[in-house]
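Contributing new records

If you add data, match the layout below exactly. Sequence lines come first and carry their own label; structure lines follow with theirs. Keep one chain per record. Anything else will be rejected by the validation script.
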Amino acid sequence: MAKRRPPQPGAGHFHGSGQYVRQIIKCLEKVNAVSGYHAYQIFDDWTQLVEACLEALPTHLTSVAQTGQMAEDTPETKTVFERLQARYEPSPYRSNSADVWSQFSQALAILLESSEPGLWGPGSYGNFDVGYMGPDVIGHTYMLYATPNQALAQIFTPWNVALLLGRLNITSGEQQIHERLKQACQHPDNILAQATLLAGLAIDDPQEAREWFFSRVLPAAWPTFEPLKVGDPAGCGSGVLLLAAAACFPVWAVHLNCVTFQGIDIDPVSVRLAKINCYLYGLNGYYLKFAEALQSANNATHLKIPGSHKAAYQQAVNVYKGKSPIAASVPTFEALFRPQPVEKETQI
């Protein structure tokens, strides 16, 4: 049977997170109008920028909060931006090239906003009634906009199917994590964890017991704790099955890296999309990087650990406004995360 072709970007009605897909596609289409490059090339360039920005975001957040200045880019990040700056450099026939970076930046901001519901709790993507796209905004952007050959298009697993598979296969995720924590506490070389666990038995108040577990028991057990591993070795695509698996574990287990997620794919673009999705939802220790960054940066300001990347960005903006000499104006996304010399247009 022939593969069903995915709908075209302008066709049909978008539900749920589809609004973000539509907005991102509009931004990338404007880049196409200015640059003339093929949709696949534009999407590939944009996702390279997204990956570089998300990898550097915790470091930049710490630096902005402490000094009001961006951190020094890594050599790898510099290489990505220099290569793409050369590709979209102004030319006689491309007078609006500065708008390319503005559209790339706006598309990234939309992608960050799309991840705000998260994968856990009421109103999140961890439910069956959020539509077939669910949290996989970047994967559906790839399918609808950047597929180089519609007849041989990649079609990623719909979110409701992925979530169903996750629920069928991971029926006791929290129990498995607790079993591993018990094993870690019973390790003969971890006397501290055993003593901490026994001391917690004297606590009657549920809230106090919960705080004791996260602040004392879990850190004490960590040296001998073996994280649970979830893998998708048969072509992970955009990582939607990994996100669905994460939604089947408690949020604390995922954010504290008690369970890790790995995927394999022969397509480098798909691997990049899966990495981006893992970043967006705090998998594989990415959430901890934000917690560590804010803990080191916000000792004086007492800011709370953000619940989403959008909240983290807003906290950075607030601190930046308080320490920057131009505190009267709110910096744009590109001005904050990719400042340029005054005489040039700002870029992401």
